[in-house]
Amino acid sequence: MTFPFHLLAPPDPAILPLPHPARPADGVTLLRGAVYAVRDGSRPLTADVWLPENAAGPLPVVVFVHGGAWRTGLRDDLGPRFRDWTPDPFAQLARAQFAVVCPDYRLSGEAPHPAQQDDLAAVLAWLRTRAADLGVDPARTVLWGESAGGHLAALTALTQPAGTVAGCVTWYAPSDLPGLAEDRPEGTYDAHDPASFEALLLGGAPADRPDAARAASPVTHAGPGAPPFLLLHGTDDSLVPARQSVRLAEALRAAGHHPDLRLVGGGDHLWVGLAEADVADCYARTVAFARRCTGG
Predict the structure, then answer these.
(1) Which of the residues in the chain have pLDDT under 70?
(2) How far is CA 19 from each of CA 23, 36, 67, 89, 115, rounded to the nearest angstrom?
(3) CB under 8 Å to 281, separation ≥6 — which residues?
(4) CB 22: neighbour CB atoms within 10 A?
(5) DSSP code at position 57
(6) How far apart are CA 81 and CA 188, in angstroms?
(7) Which residue, 9, 185, 258, 281, shows the most beta carbons closer than 10 Å to its own?
(8) DSSP H or E segment with residue 152
């Protein structure tokens, strides 16, 4: 008898049972840890899905991409300024009649670029496959990321076929990896450093891998098919200069678009230094933008 080797193949995420729903807040259902991709030689990739109870009709989707310098991070963490919000910011989005998807992706210690971009493309494909099961409208999907997650959200939005993504929001995100050496204060960034976060993402220092650095930069892909963009960046960001978001806005304008660039006075990375009201305003602007992009 020949062993049925096909049984060794991993289960197909397109048909796996969805996780048992939890109820983290009134009016909200949470599917924690739904498998959206199984990569050879890697851990299964999962996502949390927040849904409103008793939704009327297919829901618009917000896919949130976490930060952490492409090296670390938690899929459901919007940053320290939001960890004590009650209800959770994603629960609030669900109450506002959005489906919210918070995916894992392979970190730079697991695989270099473009693995992360491929993983987010797989999330979008999974949403199209499971749309009926989840009650969502994948054609009305907004990508949203903070810091490194904003970089990945922008990169994905700009490299997907036109019309796949309805909008993209970035918070204090790098957008031009070759330009970081120019944008950072003199003496604070070495483009030849093989241990920088960008080098770990690219598999080599940006100065030594210029083609890879350009390919991994959202500004490179700003073309006529780009979706609407909201770019939020603090003027006092000491980790990712605000000039990085200006560069992406300029590239989008050069391609014929009208991105909404908001430079937030006094804001450092992770919105450090902002008053609570200003942090809440960044969130409110993001929700309003997602509504406009999805017809909500």
Answers:
(1) 296
(2) 12, 12, 25, 21, 25
(3) none
(4) 11
(5) S
(6) 26
(7) 281
(8) helix 148-159
Q: Which two tokens stand for residue 231?
A: 């770019």
Counting Cα atoms < 13 Å in the Cβ hemisphere of 131 gives 15
The whole model's pTM is what?
0.96
pLDDT tens figures, 230-260: 999 999 999 999 999 999 999 999 999 999 9
Rg over CA atoms, the chain? 19
- Token couple for 89: 């910011």
pLDDT, tens digit, 9 for 90 and up, residues 88-109: 999 999 999 999 999 999 999 9
What are the Cα distances from residue 268, in Å, to 59, 70, 247, 293? 34, 19, 18, 27
Instruction: Measure the CA–CA gap between 259 and 226, rounded to whole angstroms.
Output: 10
d(CA 136, CA 128): 9
